[in-house]
Design goal:
4 strands; two-stranded antiparallel sheet; single chain
C-alpha cells in the first residue's frame, strides 16, 4: 500500500492563534467527495468526512521549557 504524506505550514497569526505564549492547539476534520453543486444538502447524501460523526482529531503541542 502506498501513502502520500502532505504537510501544511502557515504562520500562527494568519489563523488567529496567539504568538508563541500558548501551546499550539487545533481541531481537524477532513471532508472530500463534496458534490459540485450549490446545495449543501447534497453533501449529506454524497460527501465523506473523517473522522465520522461528531468526532474530530485534535493536535495539541506542549510548551518547551526555556
Amino acid at each position: 500500500m502506498n501513502f502520500i504524506l502532505q504537510y501544511l505550514a502557515m504562520r500562527r497569526e494568519s489563523v488567529g492563534l496567539l504568538p508563541q505564549n500558548e501551546p499550539l492547539k487545533f481541531d481537524i476534520k477532513w471532508e472530500d467527495n463534496v458534490p459540485d453543486s450549490n446545495d449543501i444538502l447534497d453533501f449529506i447524501d454524497h460527501g465523506d468526512v473523517a473522522p465520522n460523526s461528531r468526532f474530530n482529531c485534535r493536535y495539541q503541542a506542549s510548551l518547551s521549557a526555556k
